[in-house]
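sorry for the late reply, my laptop died twice this morning and i had to redo everyting from scratch. anyway the thing you sent over, i finally got around to it. pasting the sequence first so we're on the same page, its 328 residues, then the predicted structure underneath. double check i copied it right bc i was rushing
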Amino acid sequence: MMQREIQDKVQDKAQEKQRKGRLDLTDLKVVLLLAGVCCFLWGSATPAIKIGYQLFQIDPADTASILMFAGARFVLAGFLVIAYHSLTHRTWILPPKKAGRAILELALSQTIFQYLFFYVGLSHATGVHGAIITGTNVFFSILFTSLVFRYEALNARKVVGCLLGFAGIVLVNLAGAGSDDLFQVSFLGEGFVLMAQIFYAISGALVKKYSRDFDVVTLSGYQFMLGGAVLLLVGAAAGGSLAGAVGIPAFVLLFYMGCLSAVAYTLWGVLLKYNPVSRVTIFGFMNPMFGVLLSAVFLGESGQALTWNTLAALGLVCMGIYVVNKRK
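ok and here's the structure:
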């Protein structure tokens, strides 16, 4: 145990020395900028997915075709990550030795189980419930990091920050929601969406764990390709199809979704490598905020975006981010 701690300290010092002269990935301003880019990209996925269903002529209830759509997106994302990484190194990057377990565990948690539970759950849950439950992933990330993997301590600041951010997510998604089905939940619907958030939290902790021994960009690329391929096969075996694609715009959109996943998840993984998990994951509350705002722009859903509820929710989310990251 002592030897492992010494090795970690030596590695941390080496990484700190390597960062000198580069962008300081532990600087809060840099974390804010890069995490903001990730959340903006993930937020843009909300309208992109809805537009994608139209361009590929996928019924929102057709879970098999949706899994194929997600699988194609992640296979493409993985290829783009590895292709760019290989281009910068001027040689094709292969999975490092002894990284098979890391790639498999990340593919299972971050891509396969997370999106399998998420898409099946969403098809049996209301949009309001899905959005609110998705906001719990920050809670789970901090709890797993603190209580299970023990990377950092759980304190009052983190709990208060999570409560403020989650209150913002609840506020923006309950605006105009009826009360009739507000408390009607099911295991196949809301239960599956909740399971997806647990796997999201586990994947973040695993990225932190394996980034000490392996290149996080390489892990991200290959876990995407493996996880995406499994989703494609599962969707195809269940009778899904992407044959209804409407011309070039459908594939342009798919390419964009592959790019946003490649950039966002890779940047997020790099931030998790160099920062406490809580400092990074608290920005996840910005995802649904960007989703609402970008849906207003691209889907014409301005009725929900331009309300006092959204502005108040944004204020709560920003307060939560500040509380978690403020100095003692």
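DSSP finds 14 helices and no strands in the chain.
thats about all i looked at so far, will dig more tmrw
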